[in-house]
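SEQUENCE-TO-STRUCTURE ENTRY
===========================
What this section holds: a protein sequence and its matching fold, both as plain text.
Tokens: labelled as protein backbone structure tokens, with as many entries as the chain has residues.
Question of interest: how does this chain fold, as expressed in backbone structure tokens?
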Amino acid sequence: MPPVQRRNRLSRSRDFDAVYRQGRSVSTRFLTLYWFERDESIGAPRLGFAVPKAVGNAVVRNRIKRQLRDIVRGRLEAVPPTNDYVLVVRQGLPEAAEANGHEWLEARVDEVLGKAAA
């Protein structure tokens, strides 16, 4: 599967801030999803990941980001293209994902996306 394209990534701090400040959010035990509808009517959904240092060291944080990026890549078609998203990892997710496997992690992502769509 191809990587998440650069145009699908949130990278600038001010983009993250806009999503946090003006966006809406839903939370589950391990993930919080913020989303914000951009003014542009065309384009692709943009996605950012926030993994706080409390979650683990750099190796742990980067591993969970890679896993989440991989899972979300296949679900980008299902989300509105004019939205920006920030997926925030909460403490305990890397350990739980390690213990429960990839399918469990996919289910957690689907759970938070489902709450956002509702």
